[in-house]
Amino acid sequence: MIRPMHVLALESAGNVGGVAIHGPEAQVELLAPLGPGRGEVLPELVQEALRVARLDWGHIGLVAVDLGPGSFTGLRLGLSLAKALAQARGLPLVGVRQTEVLGLPWAEVWPGRVCVWIHDRREYVYMAWVERDRAGMETVLPFAEALARVRERSPVLLVGSGALRFAQELQAQAPEVVLAPEHFCVPHPLVVARLGLAKYNREGSADILALEPHYVHKEGDHG
User: What's the pTM?
Assistant: First the structure.
């Protein structure tokens, strides 16, 4: 008997991480805070997700992982675990960008422009425009410049950790910009799973050894 395939997805790009299982027999998503000293949480969530879904590894046919941009340590942790699981279980692996995870679901339903802001550090954000079928590449911009670009194209729906970080400034300086609800400004592993499966069906598996986190640097920043 052939078992239906499920996707195991890992999310570790931000302050909240998680694991999801997506397939015909199960839809499970578990979230937990990430940060210093929390390196063990993702492997534990993998085992818990399988238990909650009442599945074993024989049901898993694909591993998907968020490649960022995001936390340097978090992305390394998530991708290392994804590679280890894929190699140990002989499974294909795909990576998707946080920009896609945050923006593509909104681009399917929002009638105007969709823009993703992911908080980088201090006053900077990773900014990218998202259309119905694709997410543009990210640019690292200071808040003031990113805001000016968004205001040029209103009405805009803004989503991501950068929208949360600068919510008060946005409401005061650009009330015409619509902020996505807080729940949707955090990348969710179930979306990673769905997008990962679609990417796998289009392109096949990534090269496990060559797959790297998606880092974006502003001009002159080589750190």
Answer: 0.94
DSSP helix/strand/coil, 55: coil
- Dihedral of CA 206/121/166/140: which sign? negative
Rounded to 5 degrees, φ, ψ at 194 are -65, -45
Structure tokens belonging to residue 64: 């998907």
Using 50, 70 and 90 to split pLDDT, how confident is the model at 196? very high
pLDDT over 50 at 220, yes or no: no
Mean pLDDT of 1-15: 85
Q: Are 178 and 158 in contact (CB under 8 A)?
A: yes
What are the structure tokens assigned to 178, written together?
């619509």
pLDDT at residue 1, rounded to an integer = 42
The pair of structure tokens assigned to 140 is 């690292």
**3-state secondary structure labels for all residues of 200-213:** HHHHCCCCCCCCCC
What structural domains and CATH numbers belong to the chain? 6-97+186-203 (3.30.420.40), 102-185 (3.30.420.40)
